[in-house]
Design goal:
Blueprint (H helix, E strand, L loop, with lengths): L17 H6 L4 H11 L3 H17 L4 H16 L4 H5 L1 H10 L5 H17 L3 H25 L4
Helix pairs in contact: 2-3, 2-7, 3-7, 3-8, 4-6, 4-8, 6-7, 7-8
C-alpha cells in the first residue's frame, strides 16, 4: 500500500472539511439565491432562510454571537435608513466571526449577511428585505434549537 499524505485538517479520507469550505466563502449558487431574495423573491427568502437557519444551528451559531449585529440592524430600522451605517455592520460581522472560539456558524452567517448588505445599496426597500431576511434566518435557527430540545 502506497503512502499518500493527506492534506492537513481533512480528517478521514472522503470526509468533508466544513471549516475549509467556510473559509472559501459562499458558493456562486448561494450568492445568486441571496441576490434573488434581495430583489424581492419572498418564496426564495423563506426557502433559503429555513435551510440555512437549521444549518447555522447545526454549525453552532449562538444568539449571543450575533446579538450585537442584530441590535444594530434593529436600531437602523427604527430610525431613518442610513446606508453608511448599514455598511459599517460589515466590520461588526467580521469581528464576531474572527473572535477566538467563534464557531463555523458565525463565519457562515457573516458571509451570508455581508453578501446581502452588498445588494441593499441605498434602497430603503431593499434594506427592509434585508431585515426580513435576517429575522427569518434567526427565526429558523431558533426553531431548529427548539426542535432539538436543547440550547447552544
Amino acid at each position: 500500500m502506497e503512502y499518500r499524505p493527506r492534506e492537513r485538517g481533512l480528517g478521514r479520507p472522503g470526509q468533508r472539511d466544513e471549516r475549509r469550505e467556510s473559509e472559501r466563502g459562499l458558493r456562486q449558487e448561494e450568492k445568486e439565491r441571496i441576490a434573488k431574495i434581495m430583489n424581492g423573491d419572498t418564496r426564495e427568502l423563506v426557502k433559503y432562510a429555513e435551510e440555512k437557519g437549521k444549518e447555522l444551528y447545526n454549525k453552532e451559531l449562538t444568539p449571543s454571537q450575533i446579538r450585537n449585529v442584530f441590535g444594530e440592524v434593529k436600531k437602523i430600522q427604527m430610525q431613518e435608513f442610513d446606508p453608511e451605517r448599514l455598511l459599517l455592520l460589515n466590520y461588526k460581522l467580521v469581528y464576531a466571526a474572527s473572535r477566538p472560539g467563534s464557531k463555523l456558524g458565525t463565519k457562515e452567517m457573516k458571509d451570508i449577511l455581508i453578501e446581502a448588505i452588498h445588494h441593499v445599496n441605498d434602497s430603503p426597500e431593499r434594506f427592509e428585505r434585508f431585515c426580513n431576511f435576517f429575522e427569518a434566518l434567526l427565526a429558523y435557527r431558533q426553531e431548529a434549537e427548539k426542535e432539538r430540545g436543547k440550547k447552544r
